[in-house]
Amino acid sequence: MASNKSDDIAPVRAELGPSRTAVAFFGLGIMGGPMAANLARAGFDLSVWTRSDGKAERFASEYGGRAAASPAKAAEGAEVTITMVPDAPEVEAVLAEADLAEGTLVIDMSTIAPSAARSLGERLAERGVEFLEAPVSGSRPKAEDGTLTIMVGGERAAFERARPVFDALGERIVYVGPQGHAQLAKLLTNTMGAVNAAALAEVVIAVQRAGLDADAFLEVAAGSAGNSTVLALKGRPMLDRSFEPLFKLEHMLKDVRHCIAEAETLGVELRLGSFAEGFYAEADRRGHGEEDFAAVITALE
Questions:
Q1: Helix, strand or coil for residue 194?
Q2: Same domain for 50 and 151?
Q3: How many alpha carbons lie under 13 Å from residue 176 in its C-beta half-sphere?
Q4: d(CA 165, CA 53)
């Protein structure tokens, strides 16, 4: 079920309004930084922690909130704990250090394997901690303006409890179903995007080899059956070989690999996804992992 910020869905626990809720946010990277900033602007009582020295302090100075010296310090008194880190090992490490209190709601907004999300949720439940997986789509620009698509998996009551938090971060908020389903949805859509970007990279190379007017081509493509969000976001960067990271190539590669592995457990062979994985792996080997995933074009040239 999809909804947007205008939907009037009351949370189960009224105390989770922005003016009252204490939120601990872990991870201030390309996506996490602007997401945490939106929570601060919305009025949540925010504490932040990240492994990079001085980054949490700089964030607090610019956006408000408290910079914590450790995950445990950030989580003290927090009703909601949010993780936005690269993968499951980092999620596990942060939460292990956080010393979560019973009744805390943990929201993992990273993209991790569905099996890892289910396992984490089961273990947290044994400690009386609620868990939602809530991976996001939209890259850095939508993280900055609070219009992310948020896919949520877990107990419906926990989802309703978390709605004020999600409303501060996203525009399209979708309750997908039980734990594992939101992560699978995210991996599948990212793999579609990865395949699309690899196809776009081949086309861009042909455009340049033929000497086609690049601006004219982008305009024509935008009105064609080949139009897509990937074309709009990655066409010009590929043409210019400009790879400032909005979503890192190494993270796209990780997501595609998780998706292929999960599909195999379902008896599904993602042949196009597996083919594209090779190009992202090659670009990563060439040193482009920290750059935007538009850099997949370097493996196709």
A1: helix
A2: yes
A3: 22
A4: 27
Which of 5, 142, 186, 248 is catalytic? The answer is 186
CB 168 within 8 A of CB 146: yes
By the 8 A CB rule, do 256 and 282 touch?
Answer: no
Provide the CATH number for the domain around residue 60: 3.40.50.720
Give the count of domains, the chain. Answer: 2
Q: What is the pLDDT of residues 76-109, one digit of tens each?
A: 999 999 999 999 999 999 999 998 999 999 999 9
Residues 147 and 195 grouped into a single domain:
no
| DSSP β-bridge partners for residue 24 | 47, 81
Asked whether residue 7 is assigned to any structural domain, the reply reads no
Q: Does residue 2 sit within a domain?
A: no
Indicate whether this model's pTM tops 0.85. Answer: yes
> Is residue 186 annotated as part of the catalytic site, yes or no?
yes
Strand partners, 45: 22
